[in-house]
Amino acid sequence: MVIVAFLGAAGIMFGKAKVSAADLACYQPDIVDGDTFRCDGQRVRLVGIDAPEMPGHCRPGRRCVNGDPHAAKDYLSSITRTRVECASEGTDKYGRTLGRCKADEVDLSCAMLEAGHAERRYGFIMCW
Protein backbone atom coordinates (compact mmCIF):
# COMPACT_ATOMS: atom_id res chain seq x y z
CA MET A 1 0.00 0.00 0.00
CA VAL A 2 1.23 3.52 -0.78
CA ILE A 3 1.93 5.80 2.18
CA VAL A 4 1.28 9.47 1.53
CA ALA A 5 2.22 12.69 3.31
CA PHE A 6 0.55 15.97 2.34
CA LEU A 7 1.61 19.34 3.65
CA GLY A 8 -1.43 21.55 3.78
CA ALA A 9 -2.26 24.76 5.56
CA ALA A 10 -2.75 22.85 8.81
CA GLY A 11 0.67 21.17 8.63
CA ILE A 12 1.75 17.67 7.68
CA MET A 13 -0.92 15.01 7.53
CA PHE A 14 0.24 11.42 7.24
CA GLY A 15 -1.92 8.55 6.15
CA LYS A 16 -2.32 5.62 3.87
CA ALA A 17 -3.46 6.20 0.31
CA LYS A 18 -6.67 4.48 1.33
CA VAL A 19 -9.38 7.10 1.75
CA SER A 20 -11.36 6.12 4.83
CA ALA A 21 -14.45 8.19 4.16
CA ALA A 22 -15.03 9.27 0.59
CA ASP A 23 -16.64 12.68 0.19
CA LEU A 24 -17.18 11.94 -3.48
CA ALA A 25 -17.32 8.71 -5.47
CA CYS A 26 -18.14 7.73 -9.02
CA TYR A 27 -17.51 5.02 -11.58
CA GLN A 28 -15.30 5.85 -14.59
CA PRO A 29 -15.10 9.65 -14.23
CA ASP A 30 -15.02 11.93 -17.26
CA ILE A 31 -11.34 12.89 -17.67
CA VAL A 32 -10.66 16.54 -18.56
CA ASP A 33 -6.84 16.37 -18.53
CA GLY A 34 -4.03 14.75 -16.53
CA ASP A 35 -5.04 16.27 -13.19
CA THR A 36 -8.76 17.09 -13.52
CA PHE A 37 -11.92 15.03 -14.02
CA ARG A 38 -15.67 15.17 -13.48
CA CYS A 39 -17.08 12.86 -10.84
CA ASP A 40 -20.72 12.77 -9.77
CA GLY A 41 -21.33 16.13 -11.45
CA GLN A 42 -18.36 17.86 -9.79
CA ARG A 43 -15.04 18.94 -11.27
CA VAL A 44 -12.22 17.41 -9.22
CA ARG A 45 -8.59 18.60 -9.26
CA LEU A 46 -6.03 16.12 -7.92
CA VAL A 47 -4.10 17.68 -5.04
CA GLY A 48 -0.33 18.07 -5.00
CA ILE A 49 0.31 17.68 -8.73
CA ASP A 50 0.22 19.56 -12.01
CA ALA A 51 -0.03 17.84 -15.41
CA PRO A 52 0.55 19.25 -18.91
CA GLU A 53 -2.25 21.48 -20.17
CA MET A 54 -4.34 20.49 -23.17
CA PRO A 55 -3.55 22.53 -26.32
CA GLY A 56 -4.62 26.16 -25.97
CA HIS A 57 -5.14 25.98 -22.19
CA CYS A 58 -1.80 27.38 -21.00
CA ARG A 59 -2.46 31.05 -20.39
CA PRO A 60 0.29 33.56 -21.32
CA GLY A 61 2.64 34.21 -18.40
CA ARG A 62 1.81 30.93 -16.64
CA ARG A 63 4.48 28.26 -16.09
CA CYS A 64 2.87 25.16 -17.54
CA VAL A 65 4.23 21.65 -17.14
CA ASN A 66 6.15 20.20 -20.08
CA GLY A 67 5.05 16.89 -21.51
CA ASP A 68 2.39 15.28 -23.63
CA PRO A 69 -1.05 16.39 -22.40
CA HIS A 70 -2.81 13.68 -24.41
CA ALA A 71 -0.63 10.93 -22.90
CA ALA A 72 -1.29 12.32 -19.39
CA LYS A 73 -5.03 12.40 -20.00
CA ASP A 74 -5.01 8.90 -21.49
CA TYR A 75 -3.01 7.52 -18.56
CA LEU A 76 -5.37 9.03 -15.98
CA SER A 77 -8.27 7.59 -17.97
CA SER A 78 -6.64 4.13 -17.97
CA ILE A 79 -6.22 4.05 -14.17
CA THR A 80 -9.75 5.31 -13.44
CA ARG A 81 -11.77 2.68 -15.32
CA THR A 82 -13.22 1.60 -12.01
CA ARG A 83 -14.74 3.19 -8.92
CA VAL A 84 -12.95 6.40 -7.92
CA GLU A 85 -13.22 7.75 -4.37
CA CYS A 86 -12.06 11.18 -3.25
CA ALA A 87 -11.62 12.90 0.07
CA SER A 88 -12.15 16.63 -0.38
CA GLU A 89 -9.34 19.04 0.56
CA GLY A 90 -11.47 22.10 -0.19
CA THR A 91 -11.87 24.01 -3.45
CA ASP A 92 -9.53 25.96 -5.71
CA LYS A 93 -9.99 29.45 -7.17
CA TYR A 94 -11.89 27.94 -10.12
CA GLY A 95 -14.44 26.25 -7.85
CA ARG A 96 -13.11 22.73 -8.45
CA THR A 97 -13.04 20.25 -5.59
CA LEU A 98 -9.45 19.58 -4.55
CA GLY A 99 -9.40 15.85 -4.07
CA ARG A 100 -7.18 13.19 -2.57
CA CYS A 101 -8.40 10.40 -4.82
CA LYS A 102 -7.88 6.69 -5.29
CA ALA A 103 -8.97 3.95 -7.67
CA ASP A 104 -8.42 0.28 -6.78
CA GLU A 105 -6.46 1.42 -3.69
CA VAL A 106 -4.04 3.39 -5.92
CA ASP A 107 -3.47 7.04 -5.07
CA LEU A 108 -4.10 8.90 -8.35
CA SER A 109 -1.76 11.83 -7.64
CA CYS A 110 1.09 9.44 -6.83
CA ALA A 111 0.36 7.26 -9.87
CA MET A 112 0.53 10.29 -12.18
CA LEU A 113 3.87 11.32 -10.64
CA GLU A 114 5.33 7.82 -10.79
CA ALA A 115 4.34 7.46 -14.46
CA GLY A 116 6.03 10.77 -15.32
CA HIS A 117 2.78 12.46 -16.41
CA ALA A 118 2.77 15.15 -13.71
CA GLU A 119 5.03 17.04 -11.35
CA ARG A 120 4.70 18.00 -7.70
CA ARG A 121 3.08 21.41 -7.36
CA TYR A 122 0.53 23.32 -5.28
CA GLY A 123 1.44 21.72 -1.96
CA PHE A 124 3.70 18.94 -0.85
CA ILE A 125 2.96 15.31 -1.53
CA MET A 126 5.22 12.35 -0.87
CA CYS A 127 4.65 8.92 -2.33
CA TRP A 128 6.41 5.74 -1.23
Describe this structure in words.
This protein is mainly β and 128 residues long. The chain has one domain: OB fold (Dihydrolipoamide Acetyltransferase, E2P), CATH 2.40.50.90. The protein has helices spanning 69-78, 108-114, and strands at 3-8, 11-16, 24-27, 30-33, 36-39, 42-46, 49-50, 83-91, 97-103, 106-107, 119-120, 124-127. The strands form three sheets. Strands 3, 4, 5, 6, 8, 9 and 10 form a seven-stranded mixed β-sheet that branches. Strands 2-1-12 form a three-stranded antiparallel β-sheet, with no helix packed on it. The longest helix has 10 residues, at 69-78. The protein is globular. 34% of the residues are buried.
